[in-house]
Give the backbone structure.
Amino acid sequence: MYYELILAAVFFALGTYLTIGTLRTYKALEIRDMTWSAGRILFMVCAVLSVISIVTAGNVYGYIRFAATLFCIIAFMLNRDGMGASGVVASGRVIPWSEVTAYDYQMMNKKFYVYYLVNRKGKGERDVAIAYDGKDKDKVIGFLKKTAGKKYRRMKKDDR
């Protein structure tokens, strides 16, 4: 019983956090990441397993856990990364272009990866990688040249 309630609380809190991030960044996104990535497919597998587990739950606590898990999975599926005029959107936060010190990109299989070097005051430098659909490559490069043009720097080795 307590196990089910603890899981429900954790999934509900995570789902709420993801929903707030999605609502906060929805209007900032102009170019979105890939719709189907490994993480999203993994969450869909979790959704299927959660639906299967509801058959065996048989009590009200199992149903509460199921609802919280489903809420979390839906919130994750709706949360998107990408970029817009105001900056890079990653994990429910907008990183302004002023904090992006460099970017690089590469095509791998059908994914177009863009690597952003972010320097946040007081938090140091870190990389943010976002996978876009390969079909959007020209659109992404054009947008990057327009918004962060002089920040291009070769960071990743590949055969471009």
The first helix runs from residue 2 to 25. The helical segments are 2-25, 38-57, 60-78, 137-148.
